[in-house]
Write a structure and sequence with these properties.
Layout: H1 3-28, H2 45-60, H3 86-106, E1 115-118, E2 121-124, H4 125-151, H5 165-175
Helix pairs in contact: 1-3, 1-4, 2-3, 2-4
Length: 177
């Protein structure tokens, strides 16, 4: 396998993991909790999801051929709390990820070194992909943090539970022997 093809496989898995962490967080939150924000300057999980989806639709639509900041995107509206239901929010979430994965699945290794633009700034496609992974991972981390704060001792961990690192390591080593 070539380096480019291997990269495309790996990055697909990484995006899937980030998406999964976000979804595991969203499933733990109630309708009311997805709209909670600490203060006026903080974003709710609902706003973060709207922003991520808006960003995905803008960046991944026509990825190789038009600027990643589409003229019809209204970024400021992504930070208005206006999704009344978790179901509607999940549809927005899926729409963004579907756009991302459709485009990612269409890329070839030759595409990775093509020049694309985001807000007029030139990037090689590989760099733009990495930029988006970092952006989405940051926002999903915010969602997880909010979820942990709201759920407190009701939170179902998304990784290795506290105090279980040694046991987890043993299981992983035994699994790979």
């Amino acid at each position: 396998m070539s380096l480019g093809k291997e990269y495309l496989n790996i990055i697909h898995v990484r995006f899937k993991h980030v998406k999964s962490l976000g979804e595991k967080t969203l499933t733990q939150l109630t309708e009311q909790e997805i709209h909670w924000a600490l203060n006026q300057e903080s974003n709710s999980v609902s706003m973060i999801v709207k922003h991520m989806s808006g960003n995905m639709l803008s960046r991944w639509t026509d990825f190789l051929y038009s600027d990643g900041e589409k003229p019809d995107r209204d970024r400021d509206s992504e930070f208005i709390e206006d999704y009344p239901s978790k179901l509607e929010l999940m549809l927005v979430w899926e729409k963004g990820w579907e756009c991302l994965f459709t485009t990612l699945g269409s890329l070839t290794e030759e595409d990775l070194l093509k020049t694309i633009t985001i807000r007029g700034e030139k990037h090689i496609a590989l760099d733009a992909i990495e930029r988006q992974l970092a952006h989405y991972a940051c926002h999903v981390g915010q969602m997880v943090y909010i979820g942990k704060q709201l759920k407190d001792d009701q939170w179902k961990t998304l990784s290795i539970p506290r105090g279980a690192s040694e046991q987890y390591l043993k299981e992983m080593l035994a699994k790979h022997d």
